[in-house]
Amino acid sequence: MFKTFGIRWKEMNSFTYKRAANEAEAIREVADNRSAKFLAGGTNLIDLMKMNVQQPSELVDINRLALKKIESIPTGLRIGALATNSEVANNKLVQEGFPVLSEALLAGASPQLRNMATVGGNLLQRTRCYYFMDTAFPCNKRVPGSGCPAIPGFNRIHAILGASEHCIATHPSDMCVALAALDAVIRVEGPKGARSIAITDFHRLPGDTPEIDTNLQPDELIVSVDLPSSAFAKRSGYLKIRDRAQYAFALVSVAAALDIKNGRIEAARIALGGVAHKPWRSTEAEKVLTGAQSNAQTFKAAAEAALRGAVPQNHNAFKVELAKRAIVRILNDVSGRRVGGAA
Amino acid sequence: MQTIGRPVPRKEGRDKVTGQARYVDDLIFPEMLYGATVRSAVARGRIKKISFEGNIPWDEFTIVTAKDIPGENCVALILLDQPYLADEFINHPEEPILLLAHPDKHLLEEARRNVQLEIEPLPAIFTLEDSLNRKEIIWGEDNLFKSYKVEKGNVDEVWQSADFIIEGEYETGAQEQLYIENNGVIAIASPEDGVTVWGSMQCPYYVHKALLKLFGLPEDKIRVVQVETGGGFGGKEEYPSMIAGHAALLSWKSGRPVKIVYDRAEDMASTTKRHPSWTKHRTAVSRDGKLLGMEIDFVIDGGAYATLSAVVLSRGTIHAAGPYSCPNVRIKSRAVATNAPPHGEERFAESNKTSRQKKGMGFASFMHGAGFTGSGEKYLESVVGAEATADGRVRILAASTEIGQGTNTIFAQIAAEALRLDYDSIEVAKPDTGAVPNSGPTVASRTCMIVGKLVESAVLGLKQTLSGSGLLKENYTQEDFRQACRSYIEQHGALKSYSKYKAPPGINWDDEKYEGDAYGAYAWAVYVAEVTIDTVTYEARVDDFVAVQEVGKVIHPILAAGQIEGGVAQAIGYTLFENVVWKDGRMINNQMTNYIIPTAADIPPIRVFFEENPYAYGPAGAKGIGELPMDGAAPAILNAIENATGASINHIPLMPESLIEALGGESG
User: Which of A275, B145, B282, B339 could crosslink B43 through cysteines, CB 3.0-4.6 Å?
Assistant: First the structure.
């Protein structure tokens, strides 16, 4: 009665899975297979595989590598690439020396995700642009040259700084915004040896190659993040503005760090999240702050400087004003905090 | 044992908690195909050509177009304007054009993307203003689905003598219901055996009525069965008729069972949402605080087809003046057409609102009519049955659906109380049009008050039959009842009783003049919201919420409080979070990552209080409750924001960018 069909069940894309015993083996595996990926917490990569956004042919599980340590080093703090977001956020050395990092991590995701997600994976998070995430749409980041539907589309959550005509996606991480304000250095190892990358050079602007998120080579493994100690790192904080209290990416976020002596700002760091393809360090705002009196007028001037070059899209002009106000708010907050007995 | 007013366990609770409950997507039939819908990509146009491209084995697919429809190509509801499949003209960007079925759902998805539609675009309209100004005529002669006018006293004469006149325009946005389970059905259909549909739905007899017309079959050849349903909120009132018809058409042609389950993106984009609205209020007030007159103009956007807009408009018209006594009133209301997917019922809401961290408190008093509006219940003629078995168990026969809100549980409580039997001895039959009478749709806050009353009188009919036959004395035990049932069934056969709706005494409605008693009873409420507004970052947060209501006798305190808490949470989403973004008539943020609904962290403690004032014509004194909590939260929150900031906000959802505009002058 019924026709028989040759059913082509395609329930899951197949891939091979290997657990690496040591760093050298992990790097070799990925260097040998151009479509292999390191697997750490899996909180982003596995989702993207399920949604057919990424289809690696091999996963090299690095979770057993000894890269979990958080330890003091002569210049500051070294955080292993496999330390989880929860471990870093709740670490005493981080909370005391680099509070902005702890605050940023706790503003992101949910407790369950933070227990799985790692520092290395967080650095490599992909954008949550809905057009990138949905394979029904073209996307220059997913399929180079196919077009950017976000530009004529709904772009309330998209970039206002550093975007290009090929891509207006934003970087989703909270942690990376804090790292940008802390002069973090990313230590990586690859087939050609080890190197260090400054956080500001780690992520890229989209330009005409939006498919490339970072300057990390595909076969390079992140081993740690080093944070130099400083007076401004101690007086630092994070403010995230989002559409709901939990489980939402930033509309706008700000990491701010100040070194204040006798009411004068000796050094400052400002980085913005939710506004650009990379964590947006604002040297313009920092210039205004450095050497100025720590007061509301200075903070407003810094906020103006930070957003001077902003170019909003159709649905996100509000982000420009929101970012300015967020900068003022967190600078007010951070400047008033008690830090190690001195203010 | 008394069961009314006690938190007895839910009838289907154990099955849900242990994973035994079966939803549509859990059901697999032998030889089953999966169905998919090919939709328009333009808002309005004329179909020129359909071609089947790509490397797809098209001969393996069942393909259904409008030409394959055995009966009439329209979804039978109030008007017969909406086709199941567009034949030539397209009126909204999610309009179904053809259907595909195949055993492999992944290949099906690929095939759907390879159907090429050549459509000649026609000018479309997307706003209330363009529709009212008739920029294009897209529906009927004037884009007007329905209008009402209510007049009382002489409102034109009050403006001169008024001490104060308060005027405002208010806008509300669309809202997606976001039930946990998406729309889904399975159908088996053939000319010999007729059509049977299993699905997630609120109103099995609406689907039944729609399929009668679609297939041109007699009533007994169509059977609609509700399976366990994961929420509705009004979103599964009319749309299941569409998806059920689609699956049945594919089954009719292929000769095999066909399942269609929408994914979240398709469900959000294509199915009905709450109607966007615009309202203008002008109110005259005397110095001593009396309302002298109210003039209200109220317009809702119905989307491309009439669906249930007339019913929603009618309820809005009657509730527009709020719970106040006012001698002179004029209410004008209109439902108009735009080239967006049709908007449908959603748990009703009517928003008629009267340092850096600013706190404020706001207040709303309101009412909500229970049951169908006006003569609706009279025309529905709902029927409920009750059947007793030889072992003394009682089974309720009704088409009212359990969609998470507790229908099964309260029906059993009402029956147990009326018969003075154990709650556990009452069963509630699955809604199946082949087995239960039509107790009407599960909407309009009518299930407890209207259908519950029919449950009460149907089971009392059983008792009367037993007493009338001399088998049951005045005072009886559970065991006496069991023996009486057994004796009766042995002597006379089946023991059944049916009860049909009759309006309570003194309740009259004039359809022509549009006046009288629009509802048998109203639920009344006062809601208070406390908010914090950050005037630097524009974050608005509801800190505390108190909901006090009078809904007659409370049947089940936990379920009733749950209705209020859920409704208030949904209304907080409606007010501050949920923003449907439209582009050319299409929802473009139809993903849960960018259509933001509140999480538990965004919802304040909701403190629920009931004042119990039993209603003489409700079951055990109960009235309706379901839609009530949606009505008051938005005005209470906006009033609290005004109290905190001085800014009067007249549109929702209120996103941070709107607060920037409203509070732009003040900064940190």
Answer: B339
Of A154, A246, A325, the CB nearest to B583: A154
Residues with Cβ within 8 Å of B318's Cβ and at least 6 positions away in sequence, in order, are: B150, B369, B373, B374, B518, B519
* pTM assigned to the model: 0.89
Type of residue at B638: L
Identify the structural domains of chain B with CATH numbers, from first to last. 30-122+177-270 (3.30.365.10), 128-175+273-336 (3.30.365.10), 357-371+519-662 (3.30.365.10), 382-500 (3.30.365.10)
Chain B residues with at least one Cβ partner in A under 8 Å: 31, 60, 102-104, 106-107, 113, 255-256, 265, 356, 536-539, 541, 577, 581, 583, 588-589, 591, 593-594, 596-602, 655-657, 660, 667-668
pLDDT in tens, B328-387: 999 999 999 999 998 876 665 544 444 678 999 999 999 999 999 999 999 999 999 999
Residue B598, preceding bond cis, omega within 30 degrees? no
Q: Do A5 and B667 touch (CB under 8 A)?
A: no
Q: What is residue B353's predicted lDDT score, i.e. its pLDDT?
A: 41
Domain layout of chain A by residue ranges: 4-64, 236-335
Residues 6+ apart with CB under 8 A from A170: A127, A128, A129, A157, A158, A159, A273, A274, A275, A276, A277
Distance between CA atoms of A241 and A263, rounded to whole angstroms?
Answer: 28
Cβ atoms of residues B344 and B238 within 8 Å: yes
Q: Chain A residues with CB inside 8 Å of B537's CB?
A: 239, 241, 322, 325-326, 329
Q: Where are the beta strands (DSSP E) in B463-567?
A: 495-500, 509-510, 515-516, 521-534, 540-550
pLDDT digits (tens, 9 = 90+) for A240-255: 999 998 889 999 999 9
**What ipTM does the predicted assembly reach?**
0.79
